[in-house]
Specification:
- This protein has a 5-stranded parallel sheet, with helices on both faces.
- It is built from 13 helices and 8 strands.
- By secondary structure, it is of the alpha/beta class.
- The chain has 2 domains: 146 residues, no CATH class; 121 residues, Cobalamin-binding domain (Rossmann fold, 3-Layer(aba) Sandwich).
- Helix 5 packs across helix 8, helix 7 runs antiparallel to helix 9 and helix 10 runs parallel beside helix 11.
């Protein structure tokens, strides 16, 4: 399996992709119609997402021209292998450009996160637990992805408030927030303005934030690690009461989120994948 080592496409690759000559590609670049960068040797290099945006503006059917590495028909297994290698290497530029190109190519965000990013994170976590990866490698991979996801959020979603304000937080015992970042992306893609409070948010701070923003329509909490039942009730009960007081819904997601919490009236909804989360949001918008 060939692993790409550069986030850029060459003039020849762009020409083959668009079915034109290299001279035509150079002319577009020189006329600043198609963005490029120049190497020290004077060669033109192109970022995939900028080529795709140009192709779309020129009327190309992207599904007919996409290279195998970003085509929607490519196997998830191939995507996962590429992403795993780039994350272990700490290659944030490669990860960022490729994720953005995949989105530009038409991949639905929640599906991309569920089918590519989440399995890769689970693989990295498992290999760290079994001594295949070092602590340093696991930290590099996690921090690289977190950096890329924050950058991707800024590049992909313009702030808007069509469906109101949403709050994303992980409570005091929760140290992980990659899943929470991805949930925030899904909310923003569905028209919410997201207040991202991050991991290890104290209960008192979350309640104060809710009080300051009574216009919040949804509160999303992330649970990747189990919480003792008595502690869970002590955390969720006041949050639920405050959320309902202001007319907000309380959602819980993550591996440790338990569907029984809905029956116990601790939360309004529980979800275990981002596609499920998006289906809930889409259903509520109808």
């Amino acid at each position: 399996m060939q692993i790409r080592t550069s986030p850029y496409w060459s003039t020849r690759q762009v020409a083959e992709l668009l079915g034109v000559t290299e001279t035509t590609v150079k002319r577009w670049a020189d006329a600043q119609k198609l963005p490029c960068v120049r190497t020290p040797g004077g060669h033109r290099k192109f970022l995939p997402h900028e080529v795709l945006a140009f192709a779309r503006a020129q009327g190309y059917r992207l599904e007919a021209i996409l290279p195998s590495e970003i085509a929607p028909s490519a196997s998830w297994e191939r995507y996962r292998e590429w992403l795993y290698r780039w994350l272990i290497d700490g290659d944030s530029r490669m990860v960022g450009e490729q994720l953005y190109a995949w989105i530009q190519a038409g991949h639905e965000l929640a599906t991309l996160y569920d089918e590519v990013i989440t399995p890769v994170l689970e693989r990295i976590g498992s290999e760290w637990e079994h001594g295949v990866l070092s602590v340093a490698e696991e930290h590099v991979a996690s921090n690289t992805l977190l950096e890329v996801l924050h950058s991707l959020r800024q590049r992909t979603f313009a702030p808007r408030m069509e469906r109101g304000r949403a709050i994303c937080a992980a409570l005091e015992e929760e140290q992980h927030m990659l899943g929470l970042v991805m949930a925030a992306h899904v909310l923003e893609s569905e028209g919410f303005l997201v207040d991202f409070l991050g991991a290890r948010t104290p209960l008192s701070d979350l309640l104060v934030w809710l009080q300051r923003h009574p216009d919040s329509r949804l509160l999303c909490l992330s649970f990747s690690m189990p919480v003792p039942e008595d502690r869970l009730r002590a955390l969720l009960s006041p949050i639920r009461d405050a959320a309902h007081r202001y007319g907000a819904r309380l959602y819980a997601g993550g591996r440790a989120a338990d569907p029984r919490w809905v029956e116990q009236d601790l939360v309004d909804r529980v979800f275990h994948s981002l596609r499920e989360f998006r289906r809930i949001l889409v259903g509520e918008a109808v």
